[in-house]
Amino acid sequence: MDRYQFERQLWQQGYKRVMGLDEVGRGCLCGPVVAAGVILTPGSTLNEKIADSKTIDLKNREWLAEEIKEKANYWVIKECSPKVIDKLNILKASIQAMLQCSEEDGANPDYLLVDGNRFTNSLIPHSCIVKGDNKSVSIAAASILAKVYRDRYMKQLHEVYPVFGWDKNVGYPTKQHVVGLKKHGYTKHHRKSFKLGTVKRYKE
Fold this sequence. Notes:
Radius of gyration: 18 Å
Strand content: 5-15%
Oligomer: single chain
Number of strands: 5
Number of helices: 7
Largest sheet: 5 strands, mixed
Structural class: alpha/beta
Order of helices and strands: HEEHEHHEEHHH
Strand order of the largest sheet: 3-2-1-4-5
Helix content: 25-40%
CATH superfamily: Ribonuclease H-like superfamily/Ribonuclease H
Shape: elongated
């Protein structure tokens, strides 16, 4: 698969700062939704193993993330907290996190490649690409940075809340997570707008 096709077309059209955008954590019951943006230098290439982060094992994701940070022209990571998710809804919060990436000081993208089929009004021209994290190298790179960042964060939270199994499920609704909710209640890190069931509050 030619994962440079979108970037190459835009570079040929004169765009110099094409930013790939992706987010992770939409389907989780807790934790932030995290977005990342990656800009490659026109004509440059990244490791051929870079693809949709969900298709790459943990060890490879970790070292690929470091390589992306070293070789990208620019990269940025942003997040929206559970409170923001509850206020806006998960879709709008995901879009907001990606928009924040594009608006970060020093980013200055002149075109956005966005994973999925929804974005928002922006002065920056953009294209939404369904399953873009496996079709565009810059979106794929963004997906890796976002996932590595969020997974590390959830594993740190696991040390404080081990009953939910966040070291393995990173916030997704696995059996251990659901059982933990029913037995111990929800934490300040849970998204209350999600269907958590009839549960009490976790004793902090």
